Sequence to fold (105 residues):
Amino acid sequence: MIRWGGAGPQARKSPDISTWRATKGPQRRPTKAACPFLERTIAMERGRKYIDCSEVPSDSRCTLKISGTEEEVMKAAREHAISSHGHTDGPELSSTLRAGLRDER
Fold:
């Protein structure tokens, strides 16, 4: 076995890979506990939605695009539809907005 990490015959041995694998196992990706920021970022990227007002036919030619989590987009889009376009709040408006939601890439 090759010796390294010092001088002379008292130098320590190189690590035995088969022993290391048996005790440590394969390297794994960070878990939620190991990296909460990374896990939160990945979750947010997967769950981001958007709604584009220009994709909905209207007379106002609005170009607003709202993005965020589904709940954030629904709340902001509902407020925008009521205040800017004169829609009335109700289940019909919610279903129309929900149908316009798209996954952000």
